[in-house]
């Protein structure tokens, strides 16, 4: 079967760095995506990793290790507006995204 | 910017009613998707479509059908709504491949 695991909740303070981990089990793996969803809003695309290594986009970075079936999203210089749910999603050969259950990030002042 | 719109933000229907949820995208994307989102379960794929008049079942298609008569429009149909279909329904579209999807604002459906 296919499954993804990520922590349900993470709390951090403004200005800090936080890492949200994601482990997955799937067949026909192509890559790992990350989405952000603010309360009441639509999910928005953050990043996609098809190859091993770190991809950086501003304050956000995403990492993938295909051999470990593991990835993470790294958020630096946390701001209050980063409080949201973050979903990892596996993109597989079926052309589908399989989403994790989401991690609710709370940023405290 | 890609824009994905959904016909309603909130909808209240009665058990047994036929429900239509409409989704329109304005960026000429080939691929369109319907998900439902429930607390603690993440987003689950109901149906998706790679082209006009084509459809593929997702992970939870039971109780749903879809229609894609035009490239920009993808409709989700609940043939006979049931209370366990109360949920947030999200539509998405993507160009070429599906790893980067653009979501609409969602329709929160309550079935009484």
Draw up the topology in text.
The complex is a heterodimer of chains A (109) and B (112).
Chain A: E1 3-5, E2 9-13, E3 18-25, E4 29-37, E5 44-49, E6 53-57, E7 60-65, E8 70-75, E9 84-92, E10 97-99, E11 103-108
Chain B: E1 4-6, E2 10-13, E3 19-25, E4 31-38, E5 42-49, E6 56-57, E7 64-70, E8 73-78, E9 87-94, E10 102-103, E11 107-111
Parallel strand pairs in B: 2-11
Antiparallel strand pairs in B: 1-3, 3-8, 4-5, 4-9, 5-6, 7-8, 9-10, 9-11
Short description:
The complex is a heterodimer of chains A (109) and B (112). Chain A is an all-beta fold and 109 residues long.
Walk me through the structure.
The complex is a heterodimer of chains A (109) and B (112). Chain A is an all-beta fold. In chain A, 0% of the residues lie in helices and 61% in strands. Chain A is built from no helices and eleven strands. In chain A, the strands form two sheets. In chain A, strands 2, 4, 5, 9, 10 and 11 form a six-stranded mixed sheet that branches. In chain A, strands 1-3-8-7-6 form a five-stranded antiparallel sheet, with no helix packed on it. Chain A is globular. The N and C termini of chain A lie far apart (41 Å). The mean pLDDT of chain A is 94. By secondary structure, chain B is mostly beta strands. Chain B contains no helices and eleven strands. In chain B, the strands form two sheets. In chain B, strands 2, 4, 5, 6, 9, 10 and 11 form a seven-stranded mixed sheet that branches. Chain B has a four-stranded antiparallel sheet with strand order 1-3-8-7, with no helix packed on it. In chain B, strand 9 and strand 10 form a beta hairpin. In chain B, 38% of the residues are buried. The chains are: A mainly beta (109), B mainly beta (112).
């Amino acid at each position: 079967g296919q499954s993804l695991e990520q922590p349900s909740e993470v709390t951090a303070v403004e200005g800090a760095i936080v890492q949200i981990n994601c482990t997955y089990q799937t067949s026909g793996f192509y890559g790992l995506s990350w989405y952000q969803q603010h309360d009441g809003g639509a999910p928005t695309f953050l990043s996609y990793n098809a190859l091993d290594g770190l991809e950086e986009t501003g304050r956000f970075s995403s990492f993938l290790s295909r051999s470990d079936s593991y990835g993470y999203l790294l958020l630096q210089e946390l701001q209050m507006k980063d409080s949201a749910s973050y979903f990892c999603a596996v993109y597989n050969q079926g052309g589908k995204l399989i989403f994790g259950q989401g991690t609710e990030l709370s940023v405290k002042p | 910017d890609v824009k994905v719109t959904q016909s309603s933000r909130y909808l209240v229907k009665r058990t047994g009613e036929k429900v239509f949820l409409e989704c329109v995208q304005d960026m000429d994307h080939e691929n369109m998707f319907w998900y439902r989102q429930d607390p603690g379960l993440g987003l689950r794929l109901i149906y998706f479509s790679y082209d006009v008049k084509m459809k593929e079942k997702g992970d939870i298609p039971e109780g749903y059908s879809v229609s894609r008569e035009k490239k920009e429009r993808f409709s989700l149909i609940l043939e006979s709504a049931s209370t366990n279909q109360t949920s947030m329904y999200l539509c998405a579209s993507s160009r070429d491949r599906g790893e980067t999807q653009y979501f609409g604002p969602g329709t929160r459906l309550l079935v009484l």
